[in-house]
TrEMBL record, chain A:
Name recorded for this polypeptide: N-methylhydantoinase
Species of origin: Sphingomonas glacialis
InterPro entries for this protein: Hydantoinase_B, Oxoprolinase-like
Record-annotated Hydantoinase B/oxoprolinase domain positions: 55-608
Top-level taxon of origin: Bacteria
UniProtKB/TrEMBL annotation, chain B:
Pfam annotation, one family: Hydantoinase_A
Hydantoinase A/oxoprolinase domain sequence ranges: 217-504
Domain of life from the UniProt record: Bacteria
Protein name as catalogued: Hydantoinase/oxoprolinase family protein
Species annotation: Sphingomonas glacialis
Residues in Hydantoinase/oxoprolinase N-terminal domain copies: 5-196
Domain (Acetophenone carboxylase-like C-terminal) ranges: 521-687
Length: 772, 701
């Protein structure tokens, strides 16, 4: 193991006082104030007229057309670019109103669109006079404190003018090959601050009245290691917004701008109303999630804490990052835009799917309450490009919170999904045998397992919830592009979290150099994906085990190949074993060496002892779960129903010995006279003896008062994370002791919750109903 | 041969179009229809033949004794849809058997409807094509350059094959990594299987679809194996039946590549028959487009059926092709004409989410069907809406084969529309407008993805609903012209397309050649492909000198993913020819993806070569066909009250078959054919073309 660099990560940036935070995009992120429109130049004539009586059929027809235009916008980008990055759909595009509310988003990477409303409002506030906003203009920006999730996801935004008035905007944000910085590809894990990152460009007007400015294009490309390729993608992204802009203008010509605007407003209103309706069906309360982020810089054996708190009051959500550690040097934080995008992205796929990604109106119901200077709302000059993958544990935190909220209503419960895996991203860099440079991220994590549902298993290699359409490339395509041979890419046993419904399994992929002059591996990982866990489990389901990066040096692969026997796994080979941490900046892979990456699965749902034994036996036959997991976690002895019953009884009885928590008496709430109501897979709110309590839905055991933590009344077991089948030991890379906590009803011994925490951290409250 | 017989078996009807080439005044056409008879489709086949023979005034035996029979068969498609396929085992390269489970992750959603993609919690993966227990991994490895990294381990392979045989598989699919670059191991495994289990159906990826991409290639190979045995069984039974009735010529089968292959070829590559029906429709349209009906030969076809709209594109007279097709969420490689299905059709359900009216993608399909069919349907469909608007004669729907019951349909539509303040007619009109707009949007998106502008095209509408929707879709797309081809044949259009098809054999080889390309490699590969094409055509009964060879190459820029198939020269390649190949690619790339969108500095990749051999099987041209169209003065046979955009008008109804060529009917009007109803809106007119097609001119301005 490489020795850790001597850097004091406890040296924190001063946290601003909440009162008068300057959200200007300079130090703190840009957030438009309520009165931002008053700072827009008077020369901008907003088109905000909409007909009052919109024909419902006109509405449906225009809605479809806007959807089709937005999808064709995406096709235009992939077609023109031809980039392998954009071919995996690592971008997104949107249509916005004149004042930058998102009318339509697309089924690509969800959080990428969060920058558009911020960037456009910034442009309106700051540049509407000089250099001005005109018909035919296109602005470009990759400033993470204004409008980019990280520098590599560059935003292009074009205003739509109708009869001289600003009708709306179209925008896209897409990932670039390279924009400079100390490591090729734009994911420098060893950046201490933004000055080592790829270039940062606040909004600038790249295209003026239809003509691209060559001086600004040259400036944009100058820092890139692959300027020609970036120039092609630049043209593709510009062509995309031009195409979409012209199509929206044609729609206005045909239906009348005021009719189209009325349809856009109605889409926003419908999203808002649907969101309000769903929120109203959920009891008021506060839900929190704690996730950790490993290794501020490569080799630092510590993690830092993030917390996400969502308070639901009536039909509104307030979202806070309080409780998150302050930012330090290193690639461990995300800016406001990425944090906010993680929230809206998950709301969009979980609660606004009927709107077909027209989520903007839903955002009207969300109040962001970020504290700047914390890891989930970092200030300038934090390093952010290499930290983008931490958006995934944030999305998973939001997903767990929403899932728990949605379980409180029988309708929305059908739509909840447990978190998927965190993102592991190995990058291969080197030269092929003809001397050509290559540097490419392996995006196979787009085939991670998805989380379990309330009625069924997660989808094996189903892909992340936050980007439904993103796909992986064929092995043959990858081998055509890069000098490697893929030894296997197979579905990975036990990688999904166990549960009544198990998480979908991820993949295990191994490569060896083939016709390469040189090759080295750079690793980038979100959250604790390479040490401790992937997706959280819900309602007693297990978290999915961590991923890994494994190198085997000087193996007997060649001898085996000569003997006509291919290895089943990298671990079966002889040779030296090196586990790479979540952040590493270049480990050489030579001839005969093998690199394996494990792509995680999704979180599980419900007590695994409630899983139908027939499903466990099917999974055994399909090699989707191991014998170990079947017996130790599911209590299933294949082919022996009697033994299974006995085993399950014994496993359940073991829980009797778990420790009792202190009962939370302070949270007593008087009876309300309301009906019993399920607020969790295994917890029900009901009146008992004059008190409103949280009780076990199976056996009626009192767990807590209504506004208490149901975990307080549960039995708890705290043990090593390696109890999760196939989970690596976090201590391989992290010195902070990490534990798996399991909670069971003291009455019927059903496992009702799991969590992974630093041993020193108190039990997570998870859910507190009622608002005091 | 006197008769040319085209038979298209659909889920409900078997259509048989018979051309009598010795008729007075050219070629006489008759359509015989019979109910399809699953699972023994050959009975319905013979019934339809007999019906058509009767219409030509000859006996079935007389007809078959002097006929070529061309056949579009859905046996493979039906077997897949109903899950009645063979039990298949898979042999894959060690480490890669999971490709068809992984399904490229989100790639499986690429062609799914938006509401399915958006509702993440309700997504699923389809059942595995081959259960894991029947997947065997083989120790062997070819690399992208065709080198053998690991020799085939025959000892292990034999054990794997034996396990599959013991498990009772009826077919084996073999799909190895980079078999496209070097098929030696696949061929050797095929040999081993044949040796160990002589009767078993074997399908190898390098023969089924030699394209780079193990997922789509494996799916193609597996599907081929799944439907191989049922197809063999069916063709054997059919050949016996046809022989019994006096047919002794070769049976030619329609393929999705856009031409006919012989029955033996179809037995080996049944995957080529999937989707051949809609492709035949597109071939028929391409033949018609050569007569310049509608003024240009850029045509987009809308085949409007009960559950789907099939969209095809003909650019400059040539149907647009694509390299993949879909089976549910599975995508697979097959050289096919580009026909895309979207879930809009007559059976699409009209519904409401409380906030607005919506149409589809859910369909009432054939069962329970539209409410007005009286077969138990309770949810209103597009067909119900059309009926309520007065588009159909309730007693003459499908030539009187289905009686329409309007009242329950009206009541359901009224109930649906009432929250929006709309009565039955208004709701019906809204549904028509929404579905027309949806169809137009789907066509627009297709053309945009293919790199075309809808305004440069005319629309051909066929299938049961073509006449209802064509003009509205054309108007929506900014087109001036919609054509209902050979109106009387519109409902049997696929069968007609089959009779008009050429023999066509497509052979291709996958490559991973970096520029500068070695002409010797290109020459060697092209000669091999030509030989394979000519051998197959010879077996099909085509003389060598009747064959036209077309050569195609697929290239991409080395650092970009878009692959473009371009027509290239045959003959012997040298530096200059290679240069022209690259120049053609660059020009086509720029046309498709825009000026300056290719990055030439990093060079090019040649990813596949393809040779197509084509030969006309009959000398019949469309111009020679005599549709016995009317020659009377066009007079309305009746009038009916029809709703036109909210206006209730007494509308003349014409017997379409009686309208003479050149006659012009101004809207509002309805043209009724036995199986098709054509709407002529108030600002449109209908002209009968000499081919018998109805040309609708929309937008009076």
């Amino acid at each position: 193991m490489a020795s850790a660099p001597v850097i004091d990560i406890t040296q924190e940036t001063a946290v601003s006082s909440a009162k008068d935070i300057a959200w200007t995009g300079k130090v703190h992120s840009y957030r438009p104030k309520g009165d931002w429109r008053t700072r827009v130049d008077a020369g901008i004539n907003f088109h905000d007229d909409a007909i009052a009586e919109l024909d419902p059929v006109d509405f449906e027809v225009i809605r479809q057309k806007l959807w089709t235009i937005n999808m064709a916008h995406g096709d235009t980008i992939t077609r023109i670019s031809g980039s392998p990055v954009l071919a995996t759909l690592d971008f997104n595009m949107s249509i916005l109103t004149e004042d930058a509310e998102v009318v339509l988003n697309a089924p690509y990477v969800q959080f990428l669109n969060a920058g558009a409303p911020l960037g456009i409002r910034y442009i309106l506030e700051h540049y509407s006079k000089l250099p001005g906003i005109d018909d035919g203009d296109i602005y470009c920006c990759n400033d993470p404190w204004i409008a980019a999730c990280h520098q590599m996801d560059v935003l292009f935004a074009a205003p739509i003018f109708v009869e001289g008035r600003l009708f709306g905007w179209v925008a896209n944000a897409g990932h670039q090959y390279d924009l400079g910085g100390i490591v090729p590809g734009g994911w420098p894990q060893n950046s201490e601050d933004v000055h080592s990152d790829p270039v940062v460009l606040p909004p600038f007007k790249l295209v003026e009245k239809g003509v691209m400015r060559p001086d600004l294009e040259a400036m944009y490309l100058r820092q890139s290691r692959l300027p020609d390729m970036v120039a092609l993608d630049l043209r593709a992204q510009i062509a995309g917004v031009v195409f979409a802009r012209d199509q929206v203008m044609a729609l206005c010509t045909r239906f009348g701008a005021t009719t189209v605007k009325a349809a856009m407003r109605r889409m926003l209103d419908q999203a808002q109303q649907n969101f309000q309706r769903k929120l109203n069906a959920i009891p008021d309360g506060t839900w929190t999630e704690t996730r950790y982020i490993d290794e501020p810089l490569p080799g630092i054996r510590h993690n830092q804490r993030t917390q996400l708190t969502v308070t639901k009051r009536g039909d509104r959500l307030a979202v806070s990052n309080a409780g998150t550690d302050a930012q330090t040097i290193g690639t461990n934080g995300i800016p406001f835009v990425t944090w906010a995008g993680s929230i809206t992205g998950i709301v969009s796929v979980s609660m606004l799917f009927e709107q077909l990604f027209a989520y903007g109106g839903g955002e009207r119901q969300i109040d962001y309450e970020p504290t700047p200077g914390l890891l989930t709302c970092v200030d300038h000059p934090a390093a952010v490009s290499g930290g983008i993958l931490h958006s995934v544990p944030m999305m998973n935190a939001m997903q767990a919170i929403l899932a728990r909220m949605m379980a409180c209503d029988p309708d929305t419960k059908e739509d909840l999904v447990a978190p998927c895996a965190d993102y592991v991203l190995p990058v291969l860099v080197g030269f092929d045998d003809r001397g050509n440079f290559f540097g490419q991220a392996i995006l196979d994590c787009f085939a991670c397992g998805s989380g379990a549902r309330s009625f069924g298993d997660g989808i094996d290699s189903g892909g992340p919830t936050f980007s439904p359409l993103s796909m992986i490339l064929n092995v043959e395509q990858i081998e055509q592009w890069y000098p490697l041979m893929c030894l296997y890419r197979r579905s990975d046993r036990d990688s999904g979290g166990a549960g009544k419904w198990r998480g979908g399994n991820g993949l295990r992929v191994a490569i060896t150099p083939y016709r390469a002059q040189s090759m080295s591996i750079v690793t980038n990982t979100g959250g604790q994906g390479a040490t401790t866990q992937n997706g959280q489990g819900l309602f007693g389901g297990y978290p999915s085990p961590a991923s890994h990066y494994l190198i085997r040096h000087d193996t007997d692969l060649n001898e085996r190949m000569v003997a006509r026997v291919l290895p089943q796994g990298a671990i079966d080979l002889t040779g030296d074993t090196v586990w790479l941490s979540g952040k590493s900046n270049g480990t050489s892979l030579g001839h005969g060496d093998v690199f394996e990456v494990r792509i995680g699965g999704g979180g599980g749902y419900g007590d695994p002892l409630e899983r139908d034994p027939a499903l466990v036996e099917r999974d055994l036959a399909d090699d989707a779960v191991s014998q170990d997991a079947a017996e130790r976690i599911y209590g299933v002895i294949a082919g022996d129903a009697e033994a299974t019953t006995a085993r399950r009884k014994a496993l359940r009885a073991e829980r009797r010995a778990w420790s009792r928590q202190e009962t939370d008496t302070a949270a007593a709430t008087a009876a309300t006279g309301e009906l019993d109501r399920a607020v969790h897979e295994y917890v029900i709110a009901r009146d008992v003896d004059g008190e409103r309590i949280l009780a076990c839905a199976h056996c009626g055991e009192r767990l807590a008062g209504y506004s208490g933590s149901y975990k307080a009344g549960a039995l708890m077991h705290e043990g090593p994370v390696t109890q999760i089948p196939s989970a690596p030991d976090p201590a391989r890379f992290i010195d902070d002791p990490m534990v798996l906590r399991r909670f069971a009803c003291p009455g019927c011994l059903t496992q009702i919750a799991t969590e992974i925490a630093r041993a020193e951290d108190a039990v997570f409250p998870e859910m507190r109903l009622g608002l005091n | 041969m006197r008769f040319i017989v085209g038979v298209d078996i659909g889920g409900t009807f078997t259509d048989c179009v018979v051309l009598d080439t010795s008729a007075d005044g050219g070629v006489a056409v008759k359509i015989g229809k019979a109910s399809s008879t699953p699972p023994d489709f050959q009975s319905g086949f013979v019934d339809a033949l007999r019906a058509a023979a009767t219409m030509h005034g000859v006996s079935l035996e007389e007809m078959l004794g002097d006929a070529h029979v061309y056949h579009g068969c859905t046996v493979g498609t039906n077997a897949l849809v109903e899950g009645k396929t063979a039990k298949v085992g898979l042999l894959a390269t060690r480490g890669h058997a999971d490709a068809t489970f992984i399904m490229l992750s989100g790639g499986r959603l690429k062609w799914m409807p938006a509401n399915y993609i958006a509702h993440v919690a309700k997504q699923t993966k389809p059942a595995a094509l081959v259960p894991r227990t029947l997947c065997e991994e083989i120790d062997e490895r070819i690399t992208f350059d065709g080198a053998i990294a690991v020799e085939l381990n025959e000892v292990h392979a034999r054990a794997s094959i034996q396990r599959l045989i013991d498990a009772g598989v009826e077919a084996i699919a073999i799909s190895l990594i980079w078999a496209t670059a070097n098929p030696a191991h696949e061929q050797r495994l095929q040999h081993l299987v044949r040796e160990m289990a002589p009767g078993i159906f074997v399908s190898i990826s390098s023969e089924v679809s030699a394209r780079v991409g193990e997922y789509e290639r494996s799916v193609a190979t597996i599907i081929n194996a799944m439907i191989g045995p049922p197809m063999q069984h069916y063709l054997a039974a059919l050949e016996v039946d046809l022989a019994t009735h006096g047919y002794h010529d070769k049976l030619q089968i329609m393929s999705c590549s856009g031409g006919l292959i012989d029955a033996d070829n179809a037995r080996a590559l049944p995957v080529l028959t999937i989707g051949s029906g809609p492709v035949a429709g597109l071939i028929g349209a391409a033949n018609l487009a050569r007569t310049q009906v509608g003024g240009v030969n850029n045509v987009v076809t809308a085949d409007v059926g009960g559950t789907t709209l099939d969209i095809g594109t003909i650019f400059a007279g040539t149907p647009v092709r694509r390299a993949t097709a879909s089976h549910g969420q599975y995508e697979y490689f097959v050289p096919t004409l580009d026909v895309r299905s979207v879930g809009s059709g007559g059976g699409s359900i009209v519904h409401s989410d409380g906030q607005s009216l919506k149409v589809g993608p859910e369909s009432a399909a054939a069962r329970p069907g539209p409410i007005c069919f009286g077969r138990g349907g309770t949810r209103p469909t597009v067909t119900d809406a059309a009926a309520v608007l007065g588009y159909f004669d309730p007693d003459y729907f499908f030539g009187g084969r289905i009686m329409l019951d309007l009242e329950p349909a009206r009541a359901a539509l009224a109930e649906l529309g009432s929250p929006f303040g709309m009565d039955a007619e208004a709701t019906a009109a809204a549904a028509m407008r929404i579905v027309n707009s949806q169809m137009a949007d789907a066509i627009w998106l297709t053309l945009t993805q293919q790199g075309y502008d809808a305004r440069d095209f005319v629309l051909y509408g066929f299938g049961g609903g073509g006449g209802l929707h064509a003009a509205a879709i054309a108007r929506e797309l900014g087109m001036k012209t919609a054509v209902i081809p050979l109106s009387d044949l519109a409902a049997g259009w696929s069968a007609f397309g089959i009779t008009a098809s050429d023999a066509l054999i497509t052979e291709s080889v996958g490559l991973g050649l970096g520029s500068p390309f070695d002409p010797a490699t290109i020459n060697a590969r092209l000669r091999e492909l030509e030989e394979r094409v000519l051998a197959k055509l010879a077996k099909q009964g085509v003389a060598k000198d009747a064959v036209t060879l077309e050569h195609h190459a697929e290239l991409r820029y080395a650092l970009q993913t878009n692959q473009v198939s371009v027509a290239v020269e045959g003959g012997v390649y040298d530096g200059a020819t290679v240069g022209r190949m690259v120049a053609t690619f660059e020009a086509d790339y720029e046309r498709l993806f825009g000026k300056g969108s290719g990055y030439a500095a990093a060079g090019f990749q040649l990813t596949s070569l393809q040779v197509r051999g084509r030969a006309a099987l009959s000398a019949v041209t469309l111009e020679a066909i005599d549709l016995e169209s009317g020659n009377s003065t066009p007079e309305a046979k009746t009038t009916r009250v029809v709703m036109w955009s909210g206006e209730r008008l007494v509308t003349p109804v014409y017997d379409g078959s009686r309208l003479p060529p050149g006659s012009v009917t101004s809207g509002p009007a309805i043209l009724e054919f036995p199986d098709t109803t054509i709407l002529v809106d108030r600002d449109a007119s209908a002209t009968i073309h000499v081919s018998g097609s109805v040309v609708l001119t929309v937008g009076a301005e």
